[in-house]
């Protein structure tokens, strides 16, 4: 039973990562009906920016580990969010009226440019996160030893998801995002600056991905410039499982995929972890093609 709960908490933590990345996919798709294939590489960029900040600025000994991570997390989210806005302006906005295939090719090209730029700056070898800066504390919960970092990751993921949900549902900008997702033309008639709303979406999604990149670096302790492809693909699967374009669906899909992967790797084999993710995707597409919570669509009258 202890082994099961260890794997469950591990799956919940990783699922939170998948959910944060999946939110970027689902928000962009909801507004533009576009799959941002470069989103996983923005997640990688966040992980590497975190690596740079942790190795270049020795703030842990001055203000403590948690305030340092909070400060660096905000910086990473801001920088990666700005990178997302630049990506939209350069790679997507000029092609908005073009054929959808052109935007897909542009997204793939942007992905290659970002990942190879990271490789040229940091090198092709794995980079090791400075684990000695973060205290390795293990909590004893009901007789189970669970790493504190795993709990912190899960709580932070949940907090960020709740903040995003409340932002989308309760604020004026969130209402404008939902209106733009339903109909660009009608949104413009209501006085909404659609270009600005799309920029907000391309800031928020990558910012959450950047936070996820920092968590992955701290959790696994190493990075490589191609990691965005793997995590981006898993997050895309999570978005489809939950219902692409549906924000709560991306959250549910990410958590569910993380738990299934962790339990499958523990009780079947780690070699089958990726196959299990794709098997779940195939089952969902067969049984419920619109995802667990359904694709968010508008009723046409």
Structure commentary:
- With 301 residues, this protein is mainly alpha-helical.
- It has one domain.
- The protein has twelve helices and four strands.
- It has helices at residues 2-32, 39-56, 60-63, 65-92, 100-122, 148-170, 172-182, 184-189, 194-220, 227-242, 247-267, 273-287, and strands at 127-128, 138-141, 144-147, 222-223.
- Strands 1-4 form a two-stranded antiparallel ribbon. Strands 2-3 form a two-stranded antiparallel sheet.
- Strand 2 and strand 3 form a beta hairpin.
- It is globular.
Give the tags.
disordered C terminus, 301 residues, 74% helix, 4 strands, mainly alpha, single chain
Report how far apart the termini are.
Answer: 53 Å
Enumerate how many helices there are, as a single number: 12
* Counted beta strands: 4
What's the multimeric state?
Answer: single chain
Instruction: Provide the number of structural domains.
Output: 1
Approximate strand percentage: under 5%
In angstroms, what is the radius of gyration? 19 Å
Determine the structural class based on helices, strands and strand pairing. mainly alpha
Which regions have little confidence, pLDDT < 50, spanning 5+ residues?
297-301
The biggest beta sheet, please?
A: 2 strands, antiparallel
The H-and-E topology, N to C, reads as: HHHHHEEEHHHHEHHH
Order the strands across the largest sheet as they lie in space.
Answer: 1-4
Shape, per Cα inertia axes? globular
If you average the pLDDT, what whole number results? 88
Helix content: over 70%
């Amino acid at each position: 039973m202890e082994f099961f709960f260890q794997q469950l908490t591990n799956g919940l933590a990783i699922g939170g990562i998948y959910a944060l990345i999946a939110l970027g996919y689902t928000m962009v798709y909801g507004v533009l009906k576009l799959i941002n294939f470069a989103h996983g590489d923005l997640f990688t960029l966040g992980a590497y920016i975190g690596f740079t900040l942790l190795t270049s600025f020795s703030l842990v000994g001055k203000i403590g580990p948690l305030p340092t991570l909070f400060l660096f997390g905000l910086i990473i989210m801001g920088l990666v969010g700005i990178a997302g806005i630049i990506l939209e302006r350069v790679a997507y906005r000029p092609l908005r009226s073009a054929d959808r295939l052109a935007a897909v090719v542009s997204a793939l090209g942007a992905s290659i440019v970002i990942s190879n730029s990271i490789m040229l700056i940091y090198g092709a070898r794995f980079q090791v996160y400075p684990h000695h800066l973060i205290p390795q504390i293990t909590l004893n919960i009901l007789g189970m030893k669970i790493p504190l970092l795993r709990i912190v990751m899960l709580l932070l993921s949940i907090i960020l998801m709740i903040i995003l949900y409340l932002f989308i549902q309760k604020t004026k900008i969130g209402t404008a995002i939902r209106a733009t997702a339903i109909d660009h033309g009608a949104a413009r008639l209501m006085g909404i600056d659609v270009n600005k709303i799309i920029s907000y979406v391309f800031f928020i999604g990558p910012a959450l991905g950047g936070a996820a990149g920092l968590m992955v670096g701290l959790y696994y302790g190493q990075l490589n410039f191609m990691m965005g492809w793997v995590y981006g693909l898993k997050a895309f699967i999570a978005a489809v499982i939950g219902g692409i374009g549906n924000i709560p669906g991306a959250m549910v899909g990410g958590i569910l995929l993380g738990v299934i992967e962790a339990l499958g790797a523990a009780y079947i084999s780690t070699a089958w972890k990726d196959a299990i993710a794709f098997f779940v995707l195939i089952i969902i597409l067969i049984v419920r093609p619109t995802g667990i919570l359904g694709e968010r669509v508008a009723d046409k009258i």
